Structure formats: C-alpha cells, structure tokens
Amino acid sequence: MIQVPLTNIANQSLSIQLDSNQYDINLYAGEDNLDGSSGITAVDIIRNNTAIIIGVRAVTGTPLIPYIYLENGNFAFVTMNDEYPDWRQFGITQYLVFASESELEAIRGNVST
Fold first, then answer.
1. Cβ neighbours of residue 12 closer than 8 Å, sequence gap 6 or more
2. CA–CA separation, 102 vs 81, rounded Å?
3. How far apart are CA 83 and CA 38, in angstroms?
4. pTM of the complete model
5. Which end of the chain is more exposed for a tag (fewer CB within 10 A), N or C?
C-alpha cells in the first residue's frame, strides 16, 4: 500500500500517478458539528480524466470506490480509533492509503498460484 500525501487543510486537491493511472483527488470538509467535532469529509476521485466517484462521504476502514467493477486499485482512510476523517489530523494521525489491484486481489484471496 502507498500512503497518499495529504496536508491538514480543510479543502484540498491533489494529482498523483499510481499504477500507471493519473488520479485527481478532491477533498471537501463540511461544517463542524455543534459539539465542535469534525463534520463530514466528501471525496471526488477522477482517474485518467474520468470521474469515478463524486461527493462520496469519507469513512474510515471502507474503500472509497464502492464497486469492484470501478476499481483499478482503491483508496481508504486509516485513522486512530476508527474516527471519521478530520482534515486537522491529516498527516498526523489520519492517512489516505492506496491499494493496487494486485494487493486488493490478494486481500480478497483471488490470486492464482
């Protein structure tokens, strides 16, 4: 898995080349909750100029691309204590990771030997 570089700013966009694909990723921070906790984070993923997901809510431990047929690798947030992604913790205690297609197949047990 590869850690995707994020900075701890509320709204950000980045481009990264992974497994011969160009990914453009946009992260949008929602308003904070009344108790001061972080609001939702939404994500867009564009691969090779084709929108794969737009405005998907980011949660931890769940692939961001929801359907296997759309995958060519996938992204997930890793956070302490399974917290919701909070831009203030990006690069500190929260990370975005990318798993390649072959890594996903190995995780799922679909690799032929």
1. 6, 26, 27, 87
2. 28
3. 10
4. 0.85
5. C
